[in-house]
Amino acid sequence: MQERERVVISGLIVLMLILALGFFVHRSTRFAGSLAGGALGVSGALLMLSGSAYALVKRVGPLQKALTGKVSLRTMLAWHVYTGIVGAILALLHTGHKFQSPLGMLLTAAMMLVVFTGYVGRYLFNAVAQELREKREALSKLQAQYDAVSIDLGRRAAPGVATAGLTSRLVAGFFLPSAALEGIGDATAARALRLAEAMADLEYSIKMHDVFKTASSRWLKWHIAVSIVFFVLLGIHVWAGLFYGLRWFHP
């Protein structure tokens, strides 16, 4: 289900980028203020506004308790993702590729950043987190096997092979080459070294994934900050349209 969702969302992202690049081949100076353009703009704004309710529900405890019994957070997250991207597509259509006012350009740029940061946080960092969980599970299994082999080697009085820790495992690989293993006994020592090397590789990979995990938390903060800026600009845009008058029924 999540894989299908990722494919659909990726397709919508590509469509949004194609529409944004349409600025180079098409411009309509009057479409944004027309009835059709206004309907697209209002629809896009309402979709994005409704999707933003997920962030509020997730962070306000009483509100979350009141709503999660009726609608799960997973469902609200899916609504948040789809409405954000579909709303952005409608907003791009609303512009008619007319980017002349500073407010309009800032609003469009902020909207694209919101979608981009949301997409990266939802799928890229989520994939990294899933891979991190899998590697930790694999490391736990290897650790259990390594402990069993270490006990076996300890009984055979083979000091130096059953080392522990990332650094000591790597050092063991250098100072106990295959030639030295012949005097230790059998394949148990060789297996211990193979397990040690595999665990060292996994531990290093997990440390690198932890860096991504830290970055993902910062990325989420950036996504929220850009979203706030976007909705502020959207509010100013709507106010300006109402203040200077709508041209939906003007020729």
TrEMBL record:
The chain crosses the membrane at residues 7-25, 31-57, 77-97, 103-125, 222-246. Keywords: Coiled coil, Membrane, Transmembrane, Transmembrane helix. The keyword Membrane applies. It comes from the Bacteria. Residues 125-152 form a coiled coil. This is Iron reductase. It comes from Methylocystis echinoides.
